[in-house]
Specification:
By secondary structure, the protein is α+β, with helices and mostly antiparallel strands. The chain folds into two domains: about 120 residues, no CATH class; about 200 residues, no CATH class. The chain contains 18 helices and ten strands. Strands 1, 2, 3, 4, 5 and 8 form a six-stranded mixed sheet that branches. The longest helix is centred in the middle third of the chain and has 27 residues. The model has no long low-confidence stretch (mean pLDDT about 90).
């Protein structure tokens, strides 16, 4: 075994830049690999690279995550073998060692040692990783090559496509469940962000809206809030023992199902104001607000009353903390999250509802609202892709929710799958070259 110690941060750069000899990438199993896409670097908890695509010698495409370590034994010493967050790993990449990595699911994945396949010496690699990284993607700087007008039209088109796909998913779900329950699950998923989305949706299925409405029937608004908080936190397994005695009392009286395992909730690097328990309290206030009119009924009314070109709907889904607070603590559901709910849940849900009932005026209203809705806050996916495609002019061109959603659609449909040939950006670029 090599006595040379190589820091993991250097290995990250080697993998990201693919400073390796392609023909010498052989795993500890003796299997030759080819990297189609190294994945997207993950700055959060979990594997180091997300969504990699790797081809085996017999042409099989592996899609999943990649974890890097200095030594193969670090996989177990870091506890990844007990962590389900690493179950999508398809390859462990190390400086030295060939011991396979065992996932929490029981599956074993191969290990690739970079020591045997570096492109040049370690000194060469250290020098290269200090140099600026020039993107190799065919769509790099596409905005300048296509022009603002054409790029804007393209983003509008793919943003519209994503919106209609979302509406289609809601329509399909409403064919199996009540519209109000479908809407409830959608809102809950949005409150969970990407980290806890699936668990918020699971909670909404375990504790259906009709059940919550039954417990709240005939109660005044403030009592409804307390009942909803107790039921949501209790069933989620997030009701703190010895905390709020009144909530514990309500849960012990009304809770009739098994609570979720509290260890399921992902709270690593989650800011206090985004903690699942705090978001569930926000959900309680939000549901109580719509309880009298009915969730789906009130949402339909609000969308019908909204004026295109404004963000008026945001306020209907914002929740402020009732107790004395300061700064970000005052928001249980702030404007940023409320806007994400409107763009990703409310508007596509209402479009699906209107289309199923041939409500043409409402369809037109929803589309006008979406087309003129202000964009949400920037996050990793849209920020990175906008920088790649548009460079310094990104914020000026991506000036609406529709165009921002267009970036999300490009990333999820084409970029992550490395299907550049099918991507509308690459196709526009190609057609422009052919025309010239």
């Amino acid at each position: 075994m090599s006595k040379v110690k190589v820091a993991e941060c250097l290995l990250v750069q080697v993998w990201k830049r693919q400073l390796v000899e392609k023909g010498r990438m052989v795993t500890g199993y003796g299997e030759r690999l080819q990297v189609i896409y190294p994945g997207r670097e993950n700055k959060d908890s979990g594997p180091d690279f997300i969504g990699a695509i790797i081809s085996t010698a017999d042409g099989v495409l592996l899609r999943g995550d990649v974890e890097l370590h200095s030594r193969a034994g670090d996989w177990k010493s870091h506890g990844h073998n007990r962590d389900p967050s690493y179950n999508d790993v398809i390859l462990q990449v190390v400086w030295d060692g060939d011991m396979a990595a065992e996932l929490q699911s029981g599956k074993k994945v191969p290990t690739l040692s970079l020591r045997h396949c570096l492109k040049g010496s370690l000194d060469d690699v250290r020098y290269w990783t200090d140099l600026p990284m020039v993107p190799s993607d065919p769509c790099y700087n596409a905005g300048q090559r296509l022009g603002d007008s054409e790029m804007g039209r393209l983003l509008d088109e793919v943003g519209e496509e994503r919106f209609r796909l979302k509406a289609g998913h809601f329509a399909e779900a409403m064919g199996r469940r009540l519209p109000s329950q479908v809407l409830f699950e959608g809102i809950m998923g949005a409150l969970g962000y990407s980290k806890n989305k699936e668990f918020f949706e699971e909670l909404a299925r375990r504790l259906p809206l009709s059940v919550l409405e039954g417990f709240c029937l005939g109660k005044p608004p403030q009592e409804q809030v307390e009942v909803l908080k107790a039921l949501l936190l209790g069933r989620a397994g997030l009701l703190v023992v010895g905390g709020d005695g009144e909530l514990e009392r309500i849960w012990s009286c009304l809770g009739d199902g098994e609570a979720m395992d509290s260890s399921l909730w992902r709270v690593f690097r989650v800011r206090p104001e985004n903690h699942p328990a705090r978001r569930l309290v926000g959900a309680a206030y939000l549901l109580a607000r719509f309880m009298e009119a009915g969730l789906s009924e009130r949402v339909l009314q609000l969308v019908g009353q909204a004026r295109p070109g404004t963000s008026w709907l945001d306020s209907s889904f914002m929740v402020s903390a009732p107790e004395p607070c300061s700064g970000s603590e005052c928001s249980l559901i702030g404007q940023g999250r409320a806007r994400e709910i409107v763009i990703n849940i409310i508007l596509p849900f209402v479009l699906a509802w209107a289309e199923a009932r041939s409500q043409e005026k409402l369809e037109e209203q929803v589309l006008a609202l979406y087309q003129g809705y202000p964009k949400a806050g920037e996050y990793g996916i849209t920020r990175d892709l906008a920088k790649l495609l548009l460079g310094p002019g990104a914020s000026r061109l991506v000036n609406s929710a529709r165009r921002q959603q267009g970036l999300v659609h490009l990333d999820k449909t084409f970029c992550r799958r490395r299907e550049c040939a099918r991507c509308p950006v690459a196709r526009r670029l190609t057609s422009g070259l052919l025309a010239s």
